[in-house]
Amino acid sequence: MKHTAKKVETWSGADPVCGMTVSEESEHRFTFDGVEYHFCGEFCEKKFAANPSSYLSEKDETQEAVQDHEHAGCCHSHSPGHARKATAESVATGPGTDPVCGMTVTEESDHRFTFDGVEYRFCSEHCEKKFAAEPSSYLSDTDQHQEASHDHEHAACDHTHSPGHARKATVERAVAGAVYTCPMHPEIEQNHPGPCPKCGMALEAIGDPLAAATRTEYTCPMHPEIVQDHPGNCPKCGMSLESRSVDVEETNDELTDMFRRFRVSAVLALPVFILAMVADLAPGWLPESLTMHTVQWMEFGLATPVVLWGGWPFFVRGWQSVVSWNLNMFTLIGLGVAVAWIYSVIALLFPGIFPPNMLHDGTIPVYFEAAAVITALVLLGQVLELRARSRTNAAIKLLLGLAPNTARMVRADGTEEDISLDRVMPGDILRVRPGEKVPVDGVVTEGSSAIDESMVTGEPIPVEKSVGEPLIGATLNGTGSLLMRAEKVGSDTLLAQIVRMVSEAQRSRAPIQKLADIVAGYFVPAVVLIAVLTLIVWGFYGPEPRLAHAIINAVAVLIIACPCALGLATPMSIMVGTGKGAMLGVLIKNAEALEIMEKIDTLVVDKTGTLTEGKPKLVSVEVAQGFEEEELLSLAASLERASEHPLAEAIVRGAGERGAELVPTDQFESITGQGVTGIIGGRKVALGNIKLFEHLSIDPGSLAAVAESGRAQGQTVMFVAIDGRAAGLIGVADPIKASTLQAIRDLHDEDVMVVMLTGDNRTTARVVADQLGIDRVEAEVLPEQKAEIVKKLQAEGRTVAMAGDGINDAPALAQAHVGIAMGTGTDVAMESAGVTLVKGDLRGIVRARRLSRATMRNIRQNLFFAFIYNTLGVPVAAGILYPPFGLLLSPIIAAAAMSFSSVSVIANALRLKRAEV
Q1: Is the pTM of this model over 0.70?
Q2: d(CA 802, CA 799)
Q3: Chain segment 306-365, per-residue pLDDT in tens
Q4: Contacts of 361 (CB under 8 A, 6+ apart)
Q5: Which residues are catalytic?
Q6: Rounded Cα gap, residues 119 and 614, in angstroms
Q7: Do 218 and 180 form a contact (C-beta atoms < 8 A)?
Q8: Rounded CA gap, 803 and 603, in Å?
Q9: Fewest CB within 10 A of the end CB: N or C in the chain?
């Protein structure tokens, strides 16, 4: 709905967007046509700034603007008698009252939700969604409703009823609506942070990484389906949730907490360990007054805070895993530490209940030192793991750090002002001074300079930019000064899209992860079963003291097993690999595309815009007898001006350069795959390929042979007919990209067959293919046939990638095993593709394939290590080496090995940063 407001000569005191009365102290202002307008909030200020004239027209539309503004996502009651502002007294849960904001809702409302047999009606979709997410929270006491009403009133607009209040309310609302997921289990989603119910990892927030200031979501590195709006632990694996909204200077509360617990636990566990070792191995070193009973009480006093406070997060996560029946590493850790500590406490307090043969110096052996040191070592492992995991987001942090914080706006009166980046609107004129970063995406309107785009495209050579040339936000200006017009701002910029794509790709799951998921599902129950069997076997058949040996070996089995390493093997490599690709100008849409890329054996490429520059030029004009070149060019260019084909633009531009006059066209018609027709100045004009002439029953005469000669030179030749007669030929050539030849060679070195698709004549296509060494050519292809050719290649058993840049390439991109879009192409093509090349350079495909190979190799290394580690570690901990060699694995050593297993997997994943692609 169009927002308009009353035309004013001087500011009337009312917000011109929503009609609210605004005080002169409002910080939201905008000067237009010599008048400074004040606004209720930033929401209205930005809307007005984007198109001031639309808000300064007729009076009767002001009321419409107010009404629309009130319904735009908030429930403000700005107009008299508009009873939308709920109070604690007016809120009543029932079918006729919005249970979220307390408004009275008519029966005609389209927003409804049935809960517990009652159908509730809502004032808007906003309230309906909030209620549907958690109905019980809106059907309790008055205080909850009052809070819901207050929140609802401030949900989507930035009205400043008191200074700074609105912005705070908006931020709080955004955080409350966040979703959290687990990196290992993306099916887990919730509206608050916490542990993953499956693996126990801390959930990480899902969302736009650029929106970190207003929305933070948390998800689990191992279960990306776990999503919530506050930090905590993954309910699946128990790992700490990580923020999905990456910030350049983010803090990791989970790391801070774990490090604090580790420091305290290490200080207390060290003397426990030393005391126990001296008492066991060199009791003579102890003072004679210090009895073994006293030593055990000292160990109890030092170890108990470590276990109960330092290890509390492990017990919480372990308990949650049991309740939700998603057994994970914290199930094993919690069980193992609890068994060691509880057994020791019982032995200390009630030694008489144990068999006499277990007595040693009048006491029962205790394992306080094992419980304390295991807790400290696991905490150390968590600290190291959290630090290593934070490094996997380095690519996104680096990308976020590229964007400048301010832009220099040039106003209509010639004055200039530095403004924050979030205030830049499309259409603003900005100055980019030498050495500064380009603030947003746009085009050059004045000046020229060399722009370093390496931080976004991965190409080190600066690109010369002049008037009309596009600029990419966050790239670095050279020595020239530019004026630019902003076209894409905020989340629409290329940098924002890159960050968003990388973030989403890092949370996606590769098909290879399914194997790890299946194994992990059986792993923890199997380990618990092995621990029970170890307890039984050692309890009945082990050496004396049997019970002590049984408990300590069962604890070692529980502690050494680490399903976390298995779960992290794939996600960590995917995070690092996709991040590295982004820094090279190769954007991976999801993990599946990254995995398949290494298997690609056939690459299908569209010629125009992929192999070539996509900027054809008019190179030749042949005129039939009885016609003039100027006349031919004028009519052809006038006809093509109405066409959207890339070749049409080349003809129009070339005709203009040769001085041809363009005139209006009537009855324009585009015939797919053939050409265009129309009437110009009463003359019937047709332009297209030979099929068009056949369709119109026009004899090309000698022009057919001339056309073949032009095609042999690599030109795309079009026939022109005037009043039903062949009038001439127009030749257009599209230069091959400088990097294409090397890219084709590199692809052949990778054993990839290259197939070229083009709508051009077969002769022209063959010339280009021979120049580049392309293996197979499909010429004279209609747009709808491209996907069919991809299907045909797939039917031959080939794994096909398709590279294209146009809207007509989208079906083929979607059909291919992996679609590859040129970053210089259309948004539709990019949406259909699994890989986007920011630079539009085919060498990026080679990089993507090598990156895929390196990433998958890294994943296989991680999985192998995790499988072998657990396959060997659990039997050794159970005591399989005791009969032949008399060797037992101490629970303390098992804890150290378990803690470093996950760290080693992450460290291996980080090696991808140094991979040569």
Answers
A1: no
A2: 10
A3: 999 999 998 998 888 888 777 777 887 888 888 889 988 988 998 887 777 777 777 888
A4: 292
A5: 606
A6: 57
A7: yes
A8: 7
A9: N
